[in-house]
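User:
Note these tokens:
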Amino acid sequence: MPRPRKPARLYWRKDEQQWVIRDGTAQIRTGFGAQQSREAENALSDYLAQKAVPERSGPAHPGELTVGEVLAKYADDYGPGMEAPATLAYSIAALAPFWADLTCDAVKESECRRYQAHRDCAPGTVRRELGVLQAALNYAHREGVLVYPIKVKLPEAGAIRDRWLTRDELALLLRAAAPHVRKFILLSYYTGRRASAILELTWSRVDLERGVIRFREDGQRETNKRRGRIVMPRQLRSHIARWRAGMDALPRNSAAHQTHVVMFRGQTVASIKKGIRRAAERAGLDGVTPHVLKHTSITHAIMSGLGIEDAAEYFDTSPATIREHYWHHSPHQQAAAVQVIERRGR
């Protein structure tokens, strides 16, 4: 991937004994010598001011606005309110070298294919990055910066992996896991929440008396990666009560540092991937990731007869997602249709 272009800056040319402004491949002589660095800095400021894009007073035609301007506005206005702004920054850093200097009317299907070839990485990664570009263009249109919306051509989504653990595999994984990983596995299995929601779960949001877990802090904005709250099943409530009793038996100073439900050596856990991978290797299991545990949780519930609406409420996901990715495991799938057809065939 080509390096991002550096901004205009001052550069001392020994051969000419003067300060020059280096902007890409261009070099603009200032005429100021070694003892005139302040004057050279003023010249650089004047140069940058002349280059600055004037603030727009109304919507622009796509040919008048660069993709870089659109991405910058999206990052400045939308990024600070995101739960994971670093993810947005990473995508924009990947998009910028290719798109930043192009005007918005260049965003066509052919150019999106060229970007995919330019990135030379997994289609899912390109799809995510181009999704950010689409979101930025949509935002520019909603904000009245672009005259009309622009459609980004995304690569085809890959097939969803239908990997889930049987109950025997889950038991093997639990036996092979380190204590803090075992906690994570049990929480994942009984709640079906994402890894980040479980690793960020604090004891202050676990109400054993009422049997409720809140996966969001009070006032925390809900995102597409939904978290919500659950009423604890009997089995999970028993596990958590045991963990809590173990904490209460610790010296007061040690217990005070146990802020999160899943911790390792007194520290919060940023990622559980390595712990899950090592447990899976010891258990002789392939393809086990934190997301497979979430997938296992929902799959087992649907296989046991949980309906679409109840599953959507408990796992805090959409009915459409339950129907598309999990409902084929249900004993009730097409049951009504089969009954009607069988009666018809008498």
In short: The chain has a mean pLDDT of 86. The radius of gyration is 28 Å. Residues 9-51 form one domain.
